[in-house]
Design a protein that fits this description.
By secondary structure, the protein is α+β, with helices and mostly antiparallel strands. The protein has 2 domains: about 15-260 and about 545-715, no CATH class; about 295-515, Trefoil (Acidic Fibroblast Growth Factor, subunit A) (Trefoil). The chain is built from 21 helices and 15 strands. The protein has helices at about 15-30, 45-55, 70-80, 100-125, 130-140, 145-150, 155-175, 175-180, 185-205, 205-225, 235-265, 280, 290, 500-510, 525-535, 550-555, 580-605, 610-630, 650-670, 675-700, 710-715; strands spanning about 305-310, 320-325, 340-345, 355, 380-385, 390-395, 405-410, 420-425, 445, 450-455, 470-475, 475-480, 490-495, 560-565, 570-575. Strands 2, 3, 6, 7, 10, 11 and 12 form a 7-stranded antiparallel beta sheet that branches. It has a 6-stranded antiparallel beta sheet with strand order 9-8-5-4-1-13, with no helix packed on it. It starts with 16 loop residues before the first helix and ends in a 14-residue tail after the last helix.
């Protein structure tokens, strides 16, 4: 039985030395001196804030994209034992000892390093020579801008890694298609394609364009499969379902999971949750949840409520009134009703409280049992402190003359009767008999007499003058002008009123609520709201010293100063390898011109290159040229502040195109031995120039050694580059 022990157990493994060497060099180039500088570098001041919030479990919203990339950066902080206690308020600020700088920068650096072997393997899977693949990897290795971007707590290197991984995985899957369909490795690479696409989109939404490119390539390949008579209908259906599962269903599920983990981690209230709805805020620990815990759920006649405008931007605000009246005449000469002002106030205040009154009864307390208000019911809204009724009439609003003024009615014994009846319309109701609920119901108040809708016009730009204390305007808007979120309100704070006397009621309005009710939102409700906020929330785009246009990136007419040593001339800049960028542009131009030439010639049935070489040329262009296009051209349609680092994903694909073009030229245009020898010599000289430029700009890539003013001036190869030189 033990006879097998007589022979040694032998394990044979194939090791691609090129791949191992490239991986090691990539790691060395990205990890060397990773803790230097021990100071906040450029956008680390931005991403570091989110890492600290993750460490403290405090909710935040970042309009730049989904949360997966932020979570990866936070993972680095967690592994390094970061407690989140650091004030991210200034570029160049020295990190305190509790900040694990190496750990925070590790994952972006690893992602950047692994892009080097990924580039090699992509060219191999595209069926180019190992020499061309090695050239592509070396170009990525020696690209100064990619090195700089991957050595700090930034997201671009992680984004590029997942994009390249998705492309490589799909190419490996496709190459296994003919001989190993539905094998274990076939499934592995197909599933990894979907996973990598989901991760890329989870880092930044720009990856959606690469994802769509891969879906288009997969769709084209499947279209060709349909014409294969050797495949049965059942087999085609299985292929279709497998691709649908791996490339659509799984990425969607993973995308949802990123938000699930994000929301599970960030369960505490913080400064960002004010832009969310009251229901979302109430689901967080602390903040509004402390206030709303114990509130009754159903709004009844006699309820004391605060009404928050649902739009919530540019700031949250609550329906408010105070004893001051509108001026008799405005500055432009128009007259007002001189009634009590009604505004939308962006702070919590006792004057935000209103009482829901039954028009047919005088009492301002909740009966026993409470009589709930339902969709379509007519109510009066009584201001809690002044006891005046919410009113609107055919008088022009102070800042919006085409809308009606909203006021609290004062009886001046003139021919201006009260018009204070409002119909409650629950916008998000399930049926026409729905009860008006605290926090959960989004309602409109439609004026019975004029059909105007209560609207906070101030939240979209109208702030009252000094006589209105710069509070936000509230108007009555005609329904015919369309629907807008500024017309929708929800009850945020709520209690059942018990005091009929005004003085007792004022004390009651200041007191905390007593009853208990749970208002937890489902994950899908929270996801939908957060996703909508991310897509629609836009910070004010301000001109930045280092912002640029997409046209500037092609010729690298711009740079970004990432860090400057406080005393020496040491500094770090986002600057690319000039030789590589120029070559990438030339390769793209040559590819375009040759493709057009070949297409014209093929139209005339003249075939300059073999069919397999043509298919190789087209497929490489679809991946590399298509990858460049989808990661670059969309920026021309974006209204946002742009920086040079936005070009790096597109640049990576353009670099991959260089060895594609060089191999094609060497194989098909250099026919004689002399031409091939000269071409090889030129390539060696060109690679030497790439290495020379890399070494020249290494001091501003790694931030060391410090350069003298003369040496820094010598690096200003373009007048548009902003190299920082201290005055002597």
């Amino acid at each position: 039985m033990l006879g097998f022990l007589k022979e040694p157990v032998v394990v044979t493994a194939k090791i691609n030395v090129n791949l191992v060497a490239l991986t090691m060099m990539g790691l060395m180039s990205r990890l060397w001196g990773l803790c230097y500088p021990r100071a906040v570098v450029f956008d680390e001041v931005y991403y570091g804030q989110f890492v600290s919030l993750y460490m403290k479990r405090i909710f935040f919203v970042d309009d730049s994209g989904p949360p997966f990339g932020h979570m990866l950066l936070a993972l680095g902080g967690y592994l390094g034992g970061f407690d989140g206690n650091f004030l991210w308020n200034r570029i160049g600020a020295e990190y305190s000892m509790n900040v694990p700088v190496w750990s925070l920068r590790l994952l972006p650096a690893l992602a950047g390093a692994l892009c080097v072997p990924l580039a090699y393997q992509i060219l191999v899977e595209l069926h180019f020579s190992h020499c061309a693949a090695l050239g592509a990897a070396v170009l990525i290795l020696l690209e100064n801008s990619l090195i700089t971007q991957s050595r700090f707590m930034l997201l671009e290197s992680i984004l590029i890694f997942f994009i390249l991984l998705a492309v490589l995985s799909y190419l490996k899957f496709y190459n296994l298609q003919k001989h190993s369909a539905f094998s274990g490795s076939w499934w592995f690479w197909l599933l990894l394609t979907g996973v990598a696409c989901a991760c890329a989109v989870g880092v930044k939404y720009m990856a959606l364009f690469t994802y769509m490119l891969l879906l288009a390539i997969a769709g084209l390949h499947f279209w060709h499969m349909i014409g294969d008579q050797n495949l049965s209908n059942v087999s085609l259906l299985c292929h279709f379902l497998a691709r649908g599962l791996a490339l659509i269903i799984i990425p969607m599920g993973m995308y949802l999971s990123f938000f699930y983990v994000h929301l599970a981690l960030l369960y505490r209230s913080g400064p960002h949750d004010q832009i969310m709805t009251s229901a979302f805020q109430a689901s967080l620990e602390g903040g509004l949840a402390r206030i709303t815990q114990g509130q009754p759920l159903e709004v009844a006649y006699g309820s004391q409520i605060t009404l928050r405008n649902v739009l919530g931007k540019p700031m949250q605000c609550w329906l408010h009134s105070h004893t001051n009246t509108y001026p008799i005449r405005y500055d432009n000469g128009r007259g007002s009703s001189h009634q009590q002002q009604v505004t939308c106030y962006p702070f919590k205040d006792v004057n935000n409280w209103w009482i829901v009154k039954d028009p047919g009864m005088q009492q301002l307390v909740v009966s026993n049992p409470p009589r709930p208000v339902r969709h379509g019911h007519i109510v009066q809204l009584v201001h809690g402190i002044t006891t005046r009724y919410l009113n609107t009439h055919d008088v022009a609003a102070p800042l919006s003359p085409h809308s009606q003024e909203v006021s609290c009615y004062i009886d001046y014994n003139i021919s201006m009767p009260a018009q204070n009846l409002w119909r409650v319309e629950i916008v998000n109701r399930d049926s026409d008999t729905d009860v008006w609920k605290t926090i959960l119901s989004e309602v409109r108040f439609v004026h019975v007499n004029t059909s105007a809708v209560l609207k906070a016009s101030g939240v979209i730009g109208a702030s009252l003058p000094e006589w209105g204390y710069r509070q936000l305007e509230v108007v009555g808007e005609k329904l015919s002008k369309g629907y807008h979120q500024s017309m929708v309100w929800n009850v945020e704070e709520h209690r059942y009123g018990k005091s009929q006397e005004q003085k007792e009621r004022e004390v009651e309005l200041h007191s905390p609520t007593q009853m208990d009710i749970s208002k937890n939102l489902s994950f899908m409700a929270k996801f939908t709201e957060l996703q909508w906020k991310i897509l629609t929330l836009k910070n004010e785009d301000t001109e930045h010293k280092y912002s640029s246009s997409a046209l500037d990136w092609i010729t690298m007419d711009t740079n970004i100063a990432y860090w400057l040593h406080p005393t020496s001339g040491a500094q770090i800049h986002l600057l690319g390898n000039v030789a590589t960028w120029a070559s990438a542009n030339a390769a793209a131009l040559v590819y375009l011109c040759l493709s057009l030439w070949y297409l014209l010639r093929r139209r005339r049935r003249i075939y300059d290159i073999p069919e397999d070489a043509w298919q190789l040329w087209v497929s490489a262009g679809g991946v590399c040229g298509g990858g460049w296009a989808v990661n670059y051209l969309p920026f021309f349609l974006m209204e946002k502040t742009l920086f040079l680092y936005h070009y790096l994903p597109a640049l990576t694909f353009q670099i991959l195109l260089i060895p594609v073009v060089l191999q094609h030229l060497g194989n098909h245009l250099c026919r004689s031995v002399l031409l091939k020898s000269m071409f090889s010599a030129l390539i060696v000289a060109w690679f030497s120039s790439v290495y020379f430029v890399y070494c020249t700009f290494s001091p501003v890539t790694y931030g060391q050694p410090a350069l003298s003013p003369t040496e820094l001036k010598a690096l200003r190869w373009k007048d548009t580059w902003n190299i920082l030189i201290r005055k002597q």
